[in-house]
Description:
Blueprint: H1 9-16, H2 22-25, H3 32-41, E1 43-44, E2 53-55, E3 63-69, E4 72-77, E5 83-89, E6 94-95, E7 108-111, E8 116-121, H4 122-131, H5 133-158, H6 162-179, E9 186-188, H7 193-200, H8 204-216, E10 220-223, E11 226-229, H9 232-239
Antiparallel strand pairs: 1-8, 2-7, 3-6, 3-8, 4-5, 4-7, 9-11, 10-11
Main location: cytoplasm
Keywords: Activator, Allosteric enzyme, c-di-GMP, DNA-binding, Repressor, Transcription, Transcription regulation, Virulence
Organism: Thermomonas beijingensis
Amino acid sequence: MTEPIPLDLARLRRTCAECSLQMLCLPAGMDAEDISRLEAVVQRRKPLTKGDSLFRAGDPLRAVYVASEGVFKTVMLSESGEEHVLGFHLPGELFGLDAIGSGKHRCEAVALGDARVCELPYAHLASIATQVPSLQHQLLRVIGQSADRDQDHVDVLSRRQASERIAMFLHGLSDRYRRIGRAADDFVLPMSRDEIARYLGLVLETVSRGFSRLHEDGIIEVRGRRVRILDVAALGALTHGCEGGQPPQRRRSGG
């Protein structure tokens, strides 16, 4: 008779509380042996600090990643050396999927601050997924979520009005914070205004003016990088160019 596999469930709950794979393990979905098998291949990287690269363009596919703490941006450099921000990756979101097709990364992942990462070696992960159907199903789901975020970015860039792009960015970020169990209407932006501008295809001054306008209209409250969403409906209306309704009334303070 084999010895039972010891599991520290309290540690697993602390470690995986915000992981995009959490529903495989907690509270159910995999037995003790499957959980142990998955935990055995997950590697915890040494802490990263702001500006550290997790992988660079041209690096071979070795793993996919989930940030357990901190936020990452993925970027590409133009021929002139200008940085284009492709996406932001919150705790619990799987990233590094850009290399699955070609076997090489097409972009660079950079930490926006102090961060910790769970690294899932791709070869081992693919092997385990064939043996554990629930893992395979979950991987397909989070890959689908990643594809949805890419499509959202395309939708943002297709909008002509800067106000729509900024509103869509904040609305989408709010939804993503809600999905990982964080406050969706009061959060600190992990990225700078300049990084937001590079993501939205705008200039820094336009983004700054856009945030100020939303603040003056009473839709959000901005204090440095802290954002409070005061009028969810109005923010949602702006993401659709106020179609189907009247633009929100301006609520400037003062007489």
